[in-house]
Amino acid sequence: MNTDDISFDTVADETLNRLLDAIDDKLGDLLEVDMENGMLTIEAASGGQYIVNKHAPNRQIWLSSPASGASHYNYDTAKKAWIDSRDGESLTVKLAAELSTLTATPFSLD
To answer: What gap in Å lies between CA 88 and CA 105, rounded to an integer?
Structure first.
């Protein structure tokens, strides 16, 4: 494993843990939030399920959303944010907006 792999793992793990803590703290009464084997799962009572996990081969974080489908995020060191490889939106902005809509609760991850 080279230094880039270690940096990716560190940043990705910190991000997933930060997301887990923030979502569970703010929306834990409305959503089931769990982390297992580096995979963050967010489930709504309505049955919708979000999965956020790191994809080491591509050094990306992947989001599977019942609202917007699949997204892949690259880490932007200048912005210190995970940015969608297609539309340039940040992971935290997209996820917070979707969870706000899902729960009808204003919510931010930034």
So the answer is: 25
User: What span, in angstroms and rounded, lies between the C-alpha atoms of 92 and 12?
Assistant: 13
Span 69-108, pLDDT tens digits: 999 999 999 999 999 999 999 999 999 999 999 999 999 9
Q: What domains can be seen in the chain, in order of their start residue?
A: 3-101 (3.30.920.10)
The one-letter amino acid at 79? K
Residue partners of 92: CB distance under 8 A and separation at least 6: 19, 81, 82, 109, 110
For the record, the structure tokens of 16 come out as 């997933």
Give the per-residue pLDDT at 2. 44
- Report the SS3 class of residue 107: coil
pLDDT at 1 over 50: no
CA 71/CA 61 separation, integer angstroms: 8
